[in-house]
């Protein structure tokens, strides 16, 4: 499958290899991102995925860059993400292309809460919540060049998370 995009007078064609490399980059990114998010060192490590120009929207609340993310997660209890699925779309126009990555899954904030069958806790802490998260990954020009066939290195240019359940 080949995808084409016309930007100005230039035409960019994505090949199966481009899509395969982009999907591998997105898979590697999502695994690393959520492992980092759920780690005890997330306050120090997770902001490294972002740049000062990165925009975040967390359940409708706008934040900016690593400092905005840090202000959000420093007040948050520990998390455990279970990624159910992800999809990746390379955005033609640059080489390597930016990537639009959508993720769905569940997240528990705090320790899982025991409760009797049929009863719901009034607090969301400890409850699994369904989320949808969309990332725009931008090639990181400051990173060391990738080898041919190796996924490019990316930073998060935009991040939008919404709880859907």
UniProtKB/TrEMBL annotation:
<dbReference type="InterPro" id="IPR002075">
    <property type="entry name" value="NTF2_dom"/>
</dbReference>
<dbReference type="InterPro" id="IPR018222">
    <property type="entry name" value="Nuclear_transport_factor_2_euk"/>
</dbReference>
<dbReference type="InterPro" id="IPR045875">
    <property type="entry name" value="NTF2"/>
</dbReference>
<dbReference type="Pfam" id="PF02136">
    <property type="entry name" value="NTF2"/>
</dbReference>
<protein>
    <recommendedName>
        <fullName>NTF2 domain-containing protein</fullName>
    </recommendedName>
</protein>
<feature type="domain" description="NTF2">
    <location>
        <begin position="25"/>
        <end position="163"/>
    </location>
</feature>
<dbReference type="InterPro" id="IPR032710">
    <property type="entry name" value="NTF2-like_dom_sf"/>
</dbReference>
């Amino acid at each position: 499958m080949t995808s084409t995009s016309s930007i100005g007078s230039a035409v960019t064609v994505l090949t199966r290899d481009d899509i395969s490399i982009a999907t591998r980059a997105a898979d590697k990114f999502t695994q690393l991102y959520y492992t980092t998010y759920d780690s005890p060192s997330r306050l120090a490590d997770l902001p490294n995925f972002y740049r000062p120009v990165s925009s975040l929207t967390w359940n409708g609340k706008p934040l900016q860059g690593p400092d905005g993310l840090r202000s959000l997660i420093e007040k948050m209890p520990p998390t455990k993400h279970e990624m159910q699925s992800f999809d990746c779309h390379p955005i033609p126009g640059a080489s390597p292309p930016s990537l639009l990555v959508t993720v769905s899954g569940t997240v528990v904030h705090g320790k899982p809460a025991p409760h009797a069958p049929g009863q719901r806790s009034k607090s969301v802490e400890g409850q699994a919540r369904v989320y949808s998260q969309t990332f725009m990954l931008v090639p990181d020009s400051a990173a060391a060049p990738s080898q041919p066939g190796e996924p490019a290195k990316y930073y998060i240019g935009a991040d939008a998370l919404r709880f859907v359940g």
